[in-house]
Amino acid sequence: PWKYLGWILTDTMIKPQPLTINNDIKTLNDLQKLMGTINWVWPMLGISSHELQHL
Fold it and tell me: pTM of this prediction?
């Protein structure tokens, strides 16, 4: 299987990679990692950009 932009691609299936969210934010880098995770997962969850505007 191939991993590409948060997806696992096989010959017969495409599925999202397992998601781990760290909500123990202590540093700016921790926050940046969380925002990066939210940035690539929001289209899969059907969250609109308007809903993310408050973040």
Answer: 0.57
